[in-house]
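[Solved] Which block belongs to which protein?

Original post:
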Amino acid sequence: MSDLRREILDRARHLMVEDGYAHLSMRKIAAAVGCSATSIYLHFESKDALVHALIDEGFERLNARLQEAAEAHADPAERLGALARAYIRFGLENPEYYEVMFLLHPERMARYPVESYRRARRNLELIAEALEAGAADGTRAAAPTDVAAHVHWAAMHGVVSLLLARRVDVRVPEEAIVEAAVRYATEGLRTASVG
């Protein structure tokens, strides 16, 4: 990746989180990078293509974290917990990516490309695979894994969103919240029938 393309992506990500999608423009990005808007168009055909590239990059980084967590644990319950921790840690350590990936709600952005969506879905499939392995060895309820995977993801997303927004009681340590969320999500899916 060229240095200019990297700088464009980094500045655009920061500006979008700071000012919102509606206020992001190629001209603003160019001013922040110190190049012309024309130079940006050499790398991205539109603002939406640039935003999609940021989303893609975020999902690739998240997938690398989740793959590492999944590969480190053969036991399905341990793998599910490791996936939850990796997901939460990714979100808390990469707040700008997380916001671009999950929290921005642009009204008129071009639809996220289907092939990119399929690649992003690999992250959810890692959770589903851990749940299926748990159902196969009898440690998880035999529930529809697609529903259970979404419930697990929603729990982890809620933790990340609340912690990033600083909407939790500051007297409760962040690590205690993370570990409790991981425990409740994985234990709840151990016995609960979802769907």
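(Second protein starts here: sequence line, then its structure tokens.)
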Amino acid sequence: MQDTVLSKALIGHEGLIRKLGLVIGGSLFIALAAQVSVPFYPVPVTLQTLAILIVGLTYGSRLGAATLLAYLAQGAAGLPVFAGGASLTALWGPTAGFLVGFVGMAWLAGLAVEKGLAKGIFSTALCGIVISALLYLPGVAWPMYVAEAFDITGKWVGSSSSVIWQYWVSPFLLGDAVKAVIAAMVVWGGWQAHKKRNA
């Protein structure tokens, strides 16, 4: 049976050392992308979601989710892997819902590939756009409701829907669509290179 996951087709997922290498490499890739940032409060514009889509689409669901869990663990341990060099405090700041949602984002991207929903550029880009839109669910639930339930304080806690739209959603919609298309092109390019190599 032909592999549907790019990294598995290229180098395989067999063995703990290989999987650890992919997880560590993927989490570092995401950490670097997080530092390419346009300061915007309360949610910065970064290349994180582009990197997460690429990881999910190339690693598959389980390895993609494991990579994001490792990324969150690195931040929780105090490493400056989140946007702007942030670490532990970001896990209860205004972007915490997005950070937690990144795990589901990578898992869904990988699942789309495994289920054959993301095959060519168009279908992969469409999957990426839908998955990016789903990220807003935990992203906006945190400042609107969840943070308050955990007794987190801050001027962003309990934000209204209009504030959420203005600061958490609308500035990112176009960029998310563009990043989904770029991720699809990167993955498609990887498959084309793999096919040429094995022709």
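Accepted answer:
You had them paired correctly. Confirming on the second one: The chain has one domain: 6-192.
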